[in-house]
Amino acid sequence: MKQARYPAILVLVLAFCFACVPGQFVEDVFGAEDINSPDEGAHIRVPRRDESDVQVWSYEGKTGPEYWASLIPAAYLCRSGMPSIISLPGYMGELQFNYSSNSRGELWNNGHSIQYRVDNSTGHSTMWGGPMKLEKYFLLQVHQHAPSEHTIDGKRYPMEMHFVHLSNDTTPHLAALSVLIEEGAASPYLDQYFHLFDYTVSKYGERHKLNAIDLQLAFPANTSYWTYKGSRTSPDCEEGFTWLVFNHPMTASRQQIEHFTNIYNKTNRCLPIPCIVVQ
User: Where is the signal peptide, in residue numbers (predicted)?
Assistant: First the structure.
């Protein structure tokens, strides 16, 4: 996919509320302590988190963002941690994707969103280039939030999808690829499984196996992007995440969007950033 170059200086007015990866690595990203890495024979081990706090926090009321740090001891950064505001190069290189056209996995309602969790035992979908340079990150899961967690020039979108990737090194790092969704023509990618939300995973804890998902259909035609180092604003609010945000949205029909919003219609935490200067 070709990466467009940016003007010499671009001011991006951006507000984001990343609930990108609810919970810790394993709870929402892996579902297992050990996973295979993209390199044949390599293995990554990550700590397993107690899943008992999955339903402790939410986005509203007495379990909303202002209470997270007191509800979950490990989430102390939610009280004081703030996303980075940094200057970024306008062009950090072309993103490269090797996404499967025949992916297997499962849908999972985790109490905050609905994930498509990729089964990496049968092959890997990988991303590299841009700020990641030659280091390959492999896709772990895809989930969505409504309304969008980024606003661009003040515009908020009805939905946003996050493609969560893990690096293949001894100290794993996460990279989240964000795709904004606007109402319009139906999305061939969403058409593959969004209609299943209503009757297979509408309740917390429900799971449903999927086969033959074409991940190559997931992105808009123009994949130019903004990128920055930031933090997560859902528990545990860790810092040091690589964020990549496509600056052109993907379209989805109202019916496709409502398959998700009929179940979860408030799944974002908004923290405004005045501006990021991209040079």
Answer: 1-23
How is residue 134 written in tokens? 């030659």
190 sits in the region (left: phi over 0; alpha: psi -120 to 50; else beta) called: alpha
Chain-centroid distance, C-alpha 121 = 21
**Are the C-beta atoms of residues 191 and 211 closer than 8 Å to each other?**
no
Q: What is the pLDDT of residues 123-182, one digit of tens each?
A: 789 999 999 988 999 999 999 999 988 888 778 899 999 999 999 876 788 899 999 999
Angle at 244 between CA 241 and CA 246, to 5 degrees: 160
- Provide the residue ranges of all domains of the chain, joining segments of one domain with +: 67-277
**What is the CATH number that goes with domain 67-277?**
3.10.200.10
Separation of alpha carbons 63 and 74, rounded Å: 15
Q: State the burial class of residue 104 (Cβ atoms within 10 Å of its Cβ: 0-12, 13-18, 19+).
A: middle
